[in-house]
Specification:
Pfam family, one: NosL
Organism: Litorilinea aerophila
Keywords: Signal
Distance between the termini: 63 Å
Shape: globular
Number of helices: 4
Structural class: alpha+beta
Protein name: Nitrous oxide reductase
Oligomer: single chain
Largest sheet: 4 strands, antiparallel
Number of strands: 7
Length: 168
């Protein structure tokens, strides 16, 4: 009986190790971020402000997905541009007010050099256009759709510390 217990314990330990090695999940999902602990995949700084956190999920292989977390919407887009090998299946941003995850392709964005974001990209996302319009008016910013945001990356924004275009 004692031998069976040892074998069972060994089996459980090995299965835990093996499952820890298996990367990815069966469904694309926003990254789970531990604020003040997890680091941005682009700049390697600690993610601390949920208002600006972003992420994307990419395909590792058939039916397997990996989510990456970023401290700034601009860093997410820069990272994606630097990693064309990532087959991105979902983009995520936090709503500036509720801090809930949004489908980034459906959000409305405010871009302003007066909006101080973790890496200086000056971008905030909103689920509600009226809320975005208020912040844009307060910060002398512009409203952008996802398509406009991605297309506009061909020209750097003055608030970007990187001074270069970040996406295709």
């Amino acid at each position: 009986m004692r031998q069976i217990g040892k074998i069972l314990l060994l089996f459980l330990a090995l299965s835990g190790i093996l499952s820890g090695c298996a990367r990815g999940s069966a469904e694309p999902a926003p990254p789970e971020i531990r604020y003040g602990e997890d680091i941005c995949q682009e700049c390697q700084m600690i993610i601390s402000d949920p208002r600006f956190a972003a992420g994307y999920a990419y395909e590792l292989g058939p039916g397997r997905y990996q989510s990456l977390a970023f401290d700034d919407i601009g860093d997410m887009l820069a990272h994606a541009a630097r990693h064309p090998e990532h087959v991105i299946v979902a983009w995520y941003v936090h709503d500036y007010h509720s801090q809930e995850w949004l489908d980034a392709t459906q959000a409305i964005y405010v871009r302003s050099s007066a909006l101080h974001t973790p890496m200086g990209h000056g971008l905030a996302a909103f689920a509600d256009r009226a809320a975005a319009e208020i912040l844009a008016a307060e910060r002398e910013g512009e409203l952008l759709t996802w398509e406009e945001l991605v297309a506009g990356l061909a020209r750097p924004h003055p608030s970007s510390p990187h001074g270069e275009a970040h996406a295709k």
